[in-house]
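PROTEIN DESIGN WORKSHEET
SECTION A - STRUCTURE
LENGTH: 280
TOKENS:
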């Protein structure tokens, strides 16, 4: 590659990075408004004021308010595959992985405005003239799979069917989110989730020490979260280094070696996603 070609490559790459950064900035500005006001209560003019960018700039990156809302919902769904993949591949008991995963998801709903906005937009889907993915289906599949692993580990009480139990757990989890959001804006979601698991674990595994299991799960989840954040920081630093010569690829993030072959599907589409638009 000549110096001129290299210079053009660097310039194109810089423009792509700027465009990606701008799209993300606009998406987050819109998400804050959609989360606070809902779809109908938010206009492109509002997003322009919130972001400090012109309406024309917004339409350049997102052709319509509907497309912007769709992008936020898609971003919401895209948050889960990698997270689920990490817990599916982790090397500690399945029931503890399920508990740890639930706390990570709860924190995402509490702390990530795009996750919250995506959830609210889906709830207001009848007002949005686009087809949105279906929720919950992938969560039912994921929880069922983890409960099946727990049964193989002799960690479930006799007579518990993983698919039926998964349905109850998903209903309880998202029901808790609805109540917590309505009463205190999810500020106490982790405390509520802890108490919910104390109740649920006595049914799933009557002989277990539920408090100890939850404590172990949260410790494992915290370690995994710190490791993932460190890997993301290192990867981002490698990708954004100015003047990096083409031909060298960033170091790949390390993942646990153990898996069951399903992580690849989870990493390319929302859990339970189908080509007809269904997802979770």
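SECTION B - SEQUENCE
RESIDUE ASSIGNMENT:
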């Amino acid at each position: 590659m000549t110096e001129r070609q290299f210079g053009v490559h660097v310039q194109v790459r810089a423009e792509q990075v700027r465009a990606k950064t701008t799209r993300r900035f606009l998406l987050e500005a819109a998400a804050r408004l959609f989360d606070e006001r809902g779809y109908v209560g938010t206009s492109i003019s509002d997003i322009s004021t919130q972001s400090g960018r012109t309406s024309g700039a917004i339409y350049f990156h997102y052709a319509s308010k509907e497309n912007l809302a769709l992008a936020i919902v898609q971003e919401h769904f895209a948050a889960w595959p990698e997270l689920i993949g990490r817990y599916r591949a982790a090397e500690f008991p399945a029931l503890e992985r399920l508990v740890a995963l639930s706390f990570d998801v709860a924190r995402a709903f509490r702390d990530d405005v795009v996750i919250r906005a995506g959830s609210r937009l889906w709830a207001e889907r009848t007002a949005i003239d686009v087809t949105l993915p279906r929720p919950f289906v992938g969560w039912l599949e994921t929880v069922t799979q983890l409960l099946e692993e727990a049964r193989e580990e002799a960690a479930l009480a006799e007579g518990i069917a993983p698919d039926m139990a998964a349905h109850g757990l998903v209903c309880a989890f998202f029901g808790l989110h609805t109540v917590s959001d309505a009463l205190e804006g999810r500020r106490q979601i982790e405390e509520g989730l802890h108490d919910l698991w104390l109740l649920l674990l006595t049914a799933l595994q009557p002989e277990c020490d539920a408090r100890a299991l939850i404590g172990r799960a949260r410790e494992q989840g915290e370690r995994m979260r710190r490791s993932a954040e460190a890997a993301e920081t290192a990867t981002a630093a490698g990708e954004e280094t100015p003047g990096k010569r083409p031909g060298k690829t960033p170091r790949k993030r390390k993942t646990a070696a153990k898996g069951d072959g399903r992580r690849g599907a989870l990493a390319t589409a929302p859990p339970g996603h189908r080509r007809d638009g269904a997802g979770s």
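SECTION C - NOTES
Confidence is low (pLDDT under 50) at residues 241-280.
The CA atoms of residues 89 and 257 lie 7 Å apart.
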